[in-house]
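Reminder to self: tokens first, then the designed residues, so the page reads top to bottom the way the pipeline ran.
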């Protein structure tokens, strides 16, 4: 059982994946000038 990730570790990994995906979409929006508020 020690090799299995805890639910907390899985949750953190998922949050990081979401952060990366959001950062990428933000970077793409910046590159195309489609950022809200500009």
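Designed residues (38 positions):
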């Amino acid at each position: 059982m020690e090799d299995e990730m805890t639910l907390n570790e899985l949750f953190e990994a998922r949050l990081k994946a979401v952060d990366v995906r959001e950062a990428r979409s933000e970077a793409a929006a910046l590159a195309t000038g489609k950022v809200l508020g500009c």
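Residues 10 and 19 are 14 Å apart (CA to CA).
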